[in-house]
TrEMBL record:
The lineage of its organism: Bacteria, Pseudomonadati, Pseudomonadota, Alphaproteobacteria, Hyphomicrobiales. InterPro entries: KAP_P-loop, NTPase_KAP_P-loop, P-loop_NTPase, QatA. Gene3D superfamilies: P-loop containing nucleotide triphosphate hydrolases. This is NTPase KAP. Residues 16-381 form the KAP NTPase domain. PANTHER family: NTPASE KAP FAMILY P-LOOP DOMAIN-CONTAINING PROTEIN 1, NTPASE, KAP FAMILY P-LOOP DOMAIN-CONTAINING 1. Residues 434-462 are annotated as: Disordered.
Amino acid sequence: MILTDNETKIDLLNNEAIAKTIIELLREKPERPVTVGVHGDWGAGKSSVLEMIEANLATDANVLCIKFNGWRFQGFEDAKIALIEGIVTGLVENRPLLTKAGDAVKDIFARIDWLKVARKGGGLAFTAFTGIPTPDQVSDVVETLKGIFADPAKLATQDNYDKAIDGVQGLLKPGESKNVPKEIDAFRKAFDNLLKQAGIQQLIVLIDDLDRCLPDTAIETLEAVRLFVFTDRTAFIVAADEAMIEYAVRKHFPELPDTTGPRDYARNYLEKLIQVPFRIPALGETETRIYVTLLLVGAELADDDPAYASLIGVARELLKRPWKAAGLDAQTVKTTLGDKAPQVQNALTLSDQIGPILASGTQGNPRQIKRFLNTLLLRHQTAIARGFGDEVKLPVLAKLMLAERFLSRLFDQIASAAARHPDGQCEDLAALEAVSEEKETPKRKRNGSKNTGRDDDTPPVVVSASNESPILIEWKAADAIRAWARLSPSLADVDLRPYLFVTKDRKDYFGAASVLGRLAAVVEKLLGPKLSVQAFEGELKQLVPAEAAQVFEELRGRIMGGDAFDTAPPGVNGLAVLVRAHPTLQANLLDLLEALPRDRCGPWPASGWEGVIKEADAVARFEKLLEGWSTSKSSFLKTTATAALRTRQKAGR
């Protein structure tokens, strides 16, 4: 079961209200040119709003909707020409009356051809402020084409050459005085004439995915829109994230004056082009829960199922006043779906469990919600295919994935502990879930009960017991972690190892844990900064030699596996403390130092080993290493090693 991420005409978010508002605005005065912006973050539903606008206008014979996706044209054609030609071609193809308007059609295409030749033949980009090349530029194009004749390899045939010259020169009639303003006006008049002969009241151009385009493509498309801004009976609806367009403006116009500030200029550029902005609001908690329910129910039932359509209708009524609704409760769904309700029971349970935290974690973004649900369902299906599906329950997996997605440090800590535990449990998590229910005062309850008097803005007082681990203390102090811990189901007695195995696509928590067992926690501590690892020397002395060697090998693998030696890798300070606590590991340390790529190392290998390398044989090996490093191609290592040798010689070594 996969939730598709394509734009849709099925409205699960009540965004049809935005689509209808835009349509009413456009149709109120169809003769008036207007540019509308549909703004929203990545995945907010902008494309779906355009789909709804097109679907609602499909039966109106007085309106013609033309769609343009700049992202699809990126890299194939100049975006400015592509949009202009796409609009005119769509108009001609969709209005049979224009077959009789031969002269008007030829005139407008001749002007487009002129722009094409100017772009391709002379390699000239249209100016950012006019959209039309000057007569001098066109004359330069003609000269350029004539120059091509000297190199026949650049032109397929003599016939093509003649046609190109005639096509460009034909646009500049002898004795005719032309300038940029007149050319702009002429193009618009030719287009306006074409609209009149098409027999429509309004042409609406839907432009999508500009925020996916490279900056130059986005700006070229917007510059083409400016050619039509003052053309009667023409409307543009541009769907884009404002922040991405502002970024494109700054990249395309790097020479913007410092006095105005690039962001202010970018914002002004967009606001001058977009006359009426609409921003798609983020989903709140109730809206997210309704959306998740509809998505999961829709994955079980067909889109055209009458029962599903009825449920969408009920949801839309609730979405009209989301501040008064609590979501689609089980009884409402059961009554609406009738005998199909048992098919979607798991969907309802899952929606109740993950809806609240998913709303805040995704900032109410529909695409992120879909991606989360798809990953959840795919991982569950993977567990089934591998033969341990019965050990992976969707609610438990969902709760863990919420931590993985939105509280990644928490997830890593839980996973590392569970991978080491003989029963796959996390003892600190059990304690957290217990205190979260007992000591946390809820800000509000779903049954409508009032708060107990504590100000919502006042953080709870966390009293830590002396025997609590540092990790548990850290978790109890974080509001987001306590909110996550209160979610059902409880994970206190759950063997989390099957769930961690399902999430191995992110990180393998079993590699080190399965070999090291409880020593994995020691390794993690020794990967910390210098000041913190020095405090562990007493604890390290409690390790038996075999355990110390095991920890050393894990640290060595981490250091060498990172393949970055300009600065001391994480774990080097831990190795120093470990070897000081277990001197028998000095030979192992020198083996590691000898294996380092000396020409790629910073200064760190040549210093900091005082009190670590002490035995005579080890000291001799280290001094020999210093001699070799003193001739390294790495200037930092060479300088440090030379200084260390000089110091040792002065000390009488």
